[in-house]
Amino acid sequence: ELRRRLTQGATLVFVSAGYPGKRFIFERAAALGVKSVILDHPDSWSRGLVSEGLVARFLPVDMSRGSDEVYRQSESLIRQLGSDGVTGRVDGITTFVELSVPLAARLCEAFGLPGYRPEAVDAARDKHRTRAALRAAGLPTPRNALVRNEAELED
């Protein structure tokens, strides 16, 4: 009951809907009274969830574009939420699609919402940066080197 009261009417943006097997997430969110908004490629299977009443809005973004363009388009669409008579201002942004974590982190930061720091996400997704962060924190890390080209293999 507490969960339902806390989420009732909240507007939550999901960055990418994943595959159709993730439908249960949107069903559960709807049952909790969440106004779900899906930000995904225009051809996503999840687009039809709006007409089924499971999600409040579908925001089409061509995810095949460059990351800066995808970010700008996503931010612009999210800023329009709350003025559509369907959703409120965004209360949270999340994803369960690993490839969408960097975008979700940047959007959370832009909207002042809790989430992973973009710098932490970038470091976690780059082995060299992860190892450098571990070493800087005094934690054990295997000996390693960043090789940018074939000539550096000789060194």
UniProtKB/TrEMBL annotation:
<keyword id="KW-0067">ATP-binding</keyword>
<keyword id="KW-0547">Nucleotide-binding</keyword>
<protein>
    <recommendedName>
        <fullName>BL00235/CARNS1 N-terminal domain-containing protein</fullName>
    </recommendedName>
</protein>
<dbReference type="Pfam" id="PF18130">
    <property type="entry name" value="ATPgrasp_N"/>
</dbReference>
<dbReference type="InterPro" id="IPR052032">
    <property type="entry name" value="ATP-dep_AA_Ligase"/>
</dbReference>
<dbReference type="GO" id="GO:0016874">
    <property type="term" value="F:ligase activity"/>
</dbReference>
<keyword id="KW-0436">Ligase</keyword>
<feature type="domain" description="BL00235/CARNS1 N-terminal">
    <location>
        <begin position="26"/>
        <end position="115"/>
    </location>
</feature>
<dbReference type="GO" id="GO:0005524">
    <property type="term" value="F:ATP binding"/>
</dbReference>
<dbReference type="InterPro" id="IPR041472">
    <property type="entry name" value="BL00235/CARNS1_N"/>
</dbReference>
